[in-house]
Protein: NAD(FAD)-dependent dehydrogenase
Amino acid sequence: MSGLFQRLAQRPGPAVPFTIDGVAAEAKAGDLLIGAILLHRRALRRFEFGPGERAGWCLMGACQDCWVTLADGRRVRACTTLVEPGMAVVTGGVGG
Ligand code: FES
Structure:
């Protein structure tokens, strides 16, 4: 599965396991959730006002395009949230 983002440089630090729609994925400590997801997928979620998928836009907390749902019911802005071990992202199957 290829993602929308590509890591340009390896970063030190421990791996952070998390899941996307139940599929195991891995990020690095200190990665933002948007990067962690888009290294594996081409989108974050479905667009709620029409067809299509969304992958964030501003990457700085302003546009509100990157909200994602977690399995525990939380909704978080992926560009301002650090990935955490065991985080379970639910996209509804987008961006695969
Ligand atoms: S990408 Fe714009 S608020 Fe997250």
Notes: The chain has a mean pLDDT of 94.
